[in-house]
Amino acid sequence: MKFRNILVVIAASLMLSACADWIYRIDVPQGNFLDERDVSKLRINMTKEQVVYVLGKPVVEDSFDHDTWYYLYQMKRGMAKRGKDFRKELTLSFVDNRVSEVSGDFELSEDFYTPLDE
């Protein structure tokens, strides 16, 4: 009798675990989604207003240093078959309210060091 109960529990566990892929789990995006085309529009000496027009408002502005902006984007996948989780970062530094340095996971365009005409 005891052996039969254990077999029933094991069989039920195996059947229920096979249904785990049927549950739909959503992807969870967080932050600013930045496209390579938008980042390629950045130029040295752009004003903060111009950067907001091109990239949008940053996710994080440093509380102690108002001249550093952080653009972060993270995608947490609900299901592994839709791809891997990933994270992208872009950090902008300003001097006198103008872009002086850009670093992060994006390639800068060849025209980055050519300032926009004012």
Automatic annotation (TrEMBL):
Signal peptide: 1-20
Keyword Signal: yes
Keywords per UniProt: Cell outer membrane, Lipoprotein, Membrane, Palmitate, Signal
Membrane topology according to the record: Lipid-anchor
Record function comment: Part of the outer membrane protein assembly complex, which is involved in assembly and insertion of beta-barrel proteins into the outer membrane.
GO biological process: Gram-negative-bacterium-type cell outer membrane assembly; protein insertion into membrane
Protein name (record): Outer membrane protein assembly factor BamE
This protein's encoding gene: bamE
